[in-house]
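User: Okay, second chain of the day. Same drill as before: sequence in, C-alpha cells out.
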Amino acid sequence: MKEKNNRNTDRRKFLKVLGSGAIASTSVFYGCKQTNNFSVGKSDAGNVPIDKMTCRITPNTGDKVSILGYGCMRWPTRPKAKGVGDVIDQDAVNKLVDYAISHGVNYFDTSPRYIMGLSEKATGIALKRHPRDKYYVATKLSTFPDDRQLRSREGSLDMYHNSFKELQVDYIDYYLLHGVGIGGMDAIKERFYDNGILDFLLEERKAGRIRNLGWSYHGDVAVFDYLLSLDIKWDFVQIQLNYVDWKHASGWNTNAEYLYGELSKRNIPVVVMEPILGGRLAKLNDYLVAQLKQRRPEDSAASWAFRFAGSFPDVLTVLSGMTYLEHLQDNIRTFSPLEQLTNEDLVFLEETAQMLLKYPTIPCTECKYCMPCPYGLDIPGVFAHYNRCINEGNIPKSIQDENYRKARRIFLIGYDRSVPKLRQANHCIGCNQCIEACPQQINIPKEMERIDTFVEQLKQGTTL
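Assistant: Same drill. C-alpha cells below.
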C-alpha cells in the first residue's frame, strides 16, 4: 500500500510540473515549417512530417524554436585522405542540416571543443548555405582543463571571436558559459569572473552580438544555486534531463527534478542535453524494449526518452546528436507533433529507470572530452562496448550462468572488433589526466582497471 501511495504522489507531482497546458515561459506551436531552395531527395519514405514540428517561444527574443534541437557533437566523420585519423564528412553534414531544416529543425548547438575542435567550422559551412533567419545557432565559451592560456581573458576573447569566424555569423543566437559546475566555485570564478569575461559577455548581449545568454550545468549544485542567486537575467540554462537522471542522477550530476524545478520557478527556459543518456536509453536490453513495445508497438526506445524530456512545459528544446539520417527521421517523427506523456507513462518510465539501475552501466555519454588519451586508449569505445554488452544481456555473472559461453564469446570477439587491441583498457597506466576533463566525473582509470580485470577473467574462463 505504501508503494502504491508513493506512486500516486509521484503522478500528482509530475502532472503538476507538466501543468494542464498553460506554460509559464514558453509557448507551444505546431508546424514550424522552414522553407528553402535546397533539395533533400526522397528521404521521406517512412512518413516523416515536414510541417508539424512542435516549437516553443523564447521569452527574451520571441524566437520560435523547434523542440528538437540538433546537437553538433557527433557529426559524421571519415578517414583522412592522407595520414592517420578522421575528419568531418562535410558532405554528410550538409545533407543532414538540409534535411533537418526542411523538416522544421532550426536550433543547432555546437562548441569550440566538439569533435576535437572541428564542429564549429563544419556547422558554419553547412548553415551558411541557408538564409540566416531560418536557423538559430548556439555555441559556448568552453573550458579546456589542460590549457590555462585559453582560460585567461585574452584566450577567452580569442575563443569568443573565433566562434563568429568559424560559424560565419555576425551574431550568435544562444551563447553559453560552458561546463559550469566542473571544478566547483573556484573554477567558475577563475574562468568567468576574475578575468572579467562574464561582464564582457553581458555587454555583448546589450550590443546584440549575443541574443540570448545562458550556461550549461555539469556537476556541483552549489555553483548552480549560486548562479541563480545572482542579479543577472539568464535567458536560458542547459541541463542534463532524462527519465533516469530525473530522480537517480549519479556521480556529480544532480537530479533533474531539482534543477528543472528551480529554473521553472524563475521562468528560465531549459535546454535539455543528454535526453537519451549518451545513447543508453536508445539501446535498452531486450526485456525492456519488449515492455516499451507492448505499450507503443511502432515507437522506438529513444522516442520514449525524447517524449519525456519534451513533455516539460519550460523545456525550450531537446538536443540530440544525430549522426545518421535514420536517427534524425525518428526524432522528427517523435516531435512532429510532440505527444506528451500521460500519467501512466510516468509510472512506467520510473519503473524502467529502476530496472536500469539494477544493472548499472558506466555513465559515459561519449562526449570525447577525455580524448585524445596520451597513451592511445579509445576510452569512449571501451565504455561503449561494455555498456552495449550490459544492455544486451551479454555480461555473464559467473561461469554457472546458462548463457556463459555465448555471452563470453560475444563480449570478447566484439571487443576486438570494436576497439583495436592497442587501444583497449589494459593499456591504461592510470595517469588520471582524463578524470578532470570528464563532465560525468567518471573515475576513468578505475573503470578501465575493472573492465580489464573482467576481460582477463573471461579470457581465462575463471569465475567472475
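Confidence is low (pLDDT under 50) at residues 1-5, 20-25, 34-45.

User: Thanks, on to the next one.
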